[in-house]
């Protein structure tokens, strides 16, 4: 454990574009879900993997071999097969989804770029990312004229909210830390594969929701990420070794 870097105006100005992209990923996702199904959101957000690789290649000059490119295309195809039966079309929804894909890809590459510069430590980047996003969400609440005075939570709902906040903090810190050891595209692939792991767990442990076609698409996403998994395992080994040394 180490103390987080303090908020400094010079670094705040540097971080504001990243914060704006972070807030945009959440807000555009919520807006898109008002017009399209969750399956449509899952499928189209996988295109952010391709866009992230494209941006990372041109900005950070990360090289991708043919196998990696085919793997990325296969992931997108598997996601399409998964959600094919439940896709919905809405012009407004697709506009929000397009903005969401751009925001996610840009945010991931910018995070990788600033993590590589090592201007802030892990907790410092987490602090900047979350604290600076609060005013943006407050502004969105005012624009939407949301009335929070009548909001009430039961004790169980409040407990879930607190647990979610704790998990969100852990997720934020570990994601920022892994940015120092993985390429932006690899981390994006890992995040998307995690979603399909949850889909499989829900199908087998809670309620069967997958057809044979969607199940095949889910397996395709998992299997075609094998090349990226091997790279991530090396990166994670370096990550845990650095934690041990520190």
Secondary-structure topology with pairs:
Blueprint: H1 9-32, H2 38-45, H3 47-59, H4 66-83, H5 91-117, H6 122-131, H7 134-143, H8 155-178, H9 184-206, H10 212-223, H11 226-245
Helix pairs in contact: 1-5, 2-4, 3-5, 3-9, 4-10, 5-9, 6-8, 9-10, 9-11
Keywords: Membrane, Transmembrane, Transmembrane helix
Membrane topology: Multi-pass membrane protein
Transmembrane segments: 66-85, 91-107, 119-143, 155-178
Describe this structure in words.
The chain is an all-alpha fold and 246 residues long. It has one domain. 77% of the residues lie in helices and 0% in strands. It has helices at residues 9-32, 38-45, 47-59, 66-83, 91-117, 122-131, 134-143, 155-178, 184-206, 212-223, 226-245. The protein is globular, with a radius of gyration of 19 Å. The chain starts with 8 loop residues before the first helix and ends with a helix. 29% of the residues are buried.
Summarize the structure.
With 246 residues, this protein is mostly helical.
Number of strands: 0
Low-confidence stretches: none
Outline type: globular
> Could you tell me how far the N terminus lies from the C terminus, measured between alpha carbons in angstroms?
8 Å
Helix content: over 70%
Strand content: under 5%
Order of helices and strands: HHHHHHHHHHH
Mean pLDDT, to the nearest integer, reads: 77
Largest sheet: none
Structural class: mainly alpha
Number of discrete helical segments: 11
Number of domains: 1
Radius of gyration: 19 Å
List keywords for this structure.
single chain, 246 residues, 77% helix, mainly alpha
